[in-house]
Amino acid sequence: MQSRNIVGDSAVLRHVLHQVEVVAPTDATVLLLGETGTGKELIAGAIHEASGRRGRPFVKVNCAAIPSGLLESELFGHERGAFTGAVAQRIGRFELADGGTLFLDEVGEIPVELQSKLLRVLQEHAFERLGGTRTIDVDVRLIAATNRDLVDMVATRSFRDDLYYRLNVFPIAIPPLRERREDIDALVDHLVGEFARRMNRRIDVIPTETREALRRHPWPGNVRELQNVIQRAVILSRNGRLTLPPIRVEFPLRGAGNEVDTLAGINRAAIVRVLEETSWVIGGPRGAAARLGVKRTTLQSMIKRFGLPLPRDAAKSYLDSRTSRPERLPDPNWAVG
Ligand SMILES: Nc1ncnc2c1ncn2[C@@H]1O[C@H](COP(=O)(O)OP(=O)(O)OP(=O)(O)O)[C@@H](O)[C@H]1O
Ligand SMILES: [Mg+2]
């Protein structure tokens, strides 16, 4: 199994790699589900490399990065004169991927109008270029990825149900980093080695408290966020000791409540800051609730309401690392992503 560059040995990651191994040699469509930065693209590449299509093209299209008006031509190509500005014929990604694998990243962003055309290629392995009449046959294995809830999108009709079923042949859920904290140490070692080499630095020591801080951070940005923090740390390091920059919890700026000019936004920002300062301990005389001057249960419901990620193991691993008796742990049901 080609997993040389996939670091980690947690049971959940091993399960993912096992699924990769099983599905790779088949031509089945794979749907990768996971938060931002969890390694969806890495896994897509691993599936291609472990398949009979290795050596053939692996073509990537990020549906969110291409303006929706241009996406159709990007996928299917166009003939000269197909639309204003189409001065020459253009080969689309499906044709480029012929014989290989097409990785459709952020598939939830495909406009509904285009979804039916995508469905047709999946069913008939055929399409026409924009402005063209000739039907083009292709042999393409599709891997799609999304961090959106497609079931929810189907319910609100922003995603076609028939396309969803076509894509959802073999779903693989890639767990967030906070659910596989066992992998953090190995990832840190790997990334420190990698960045030190690239920046021509020597890092001999990773202090214990640095490791502990890295282990208990909630990593809402997953491996990509860890990568950025390690890169900054390697830059800051002196005398061969890894020096951690202050790691703030950078929540994805999605949904309401992030604006600091609303009352809710101010509350949320204050909660995040105090949670960081108290290392996610909520109760007890020095816990976040006491610091904020609210009851523990009030803080708990605010955390829930603001959709803050509070993995129970963030607090637990912190408490485990201390010698004193742990205060009450947060309710396990709060691990909101
Ligand atoms: N298990 C892992 N071992 C080593 N590197 C990893 C691992 N998982 C992710 N990475 C690295 O983290 C970065 C983010 O991974 P990737 O781009 O595959 O995530 P993604 O899920 O596609 O993210 P996004 O949703 O933001 O596009 C990449 O540089 C990737 O190489
Ligand atoms: Mg990606």
Task: Characterize the structure shown.
The chain is of the alpha/beta class. The strands form 3 sheets. The protein has a 5-stranded parallel sheet. The protein has a two-stranded antiparallel sheet with strand order 3-4. A two-stranded antiparallel ribbon has the order 6-7. Helix 8 packs across helix 10 and helix 9 packs antiparallel against helix 14. The longest helix has 15 residues. The chain is globular and about 70 Å long. The structure holds adenosine-5'-triphosphate and magnesium ion (MG). The site of adenosine-5'-triphosphate has 16 residues, from helix 2 and helix 10. Adenosine-5'-triphosphate binds next to helix 2 and helix 10.
Q: Percent range for helical residues? A: 40-55%
Largest sheet: 5 strands, parallel
Q: Uncertain segments of ≥5 residues (pLDDT<50)?
A: 252-258, 313-337
Bound molecules: adenosine-5'-triphosphate, magnesium ion
State the helix count. 14
Structural class: alpha/beta
What is the 3D shape?
Answer: globular
As a whole number of angstroms, the C-alpha radius of gyration is: 23 Å
The count of strands amounts to 9
Report the end-to-end length measured between terminal Cα atoms.
30 Å
The sequence of SSEs as H and E is: HEHEHEEHEHEEEHHEHHHHHHH
Average pLDDT, rounded to a whole number, is 86
Instruction: Tell me the fraction of residues in β-strands, as a range.
Output: 5-15%
Main-sheet strand order equals 2-5-8-1-9
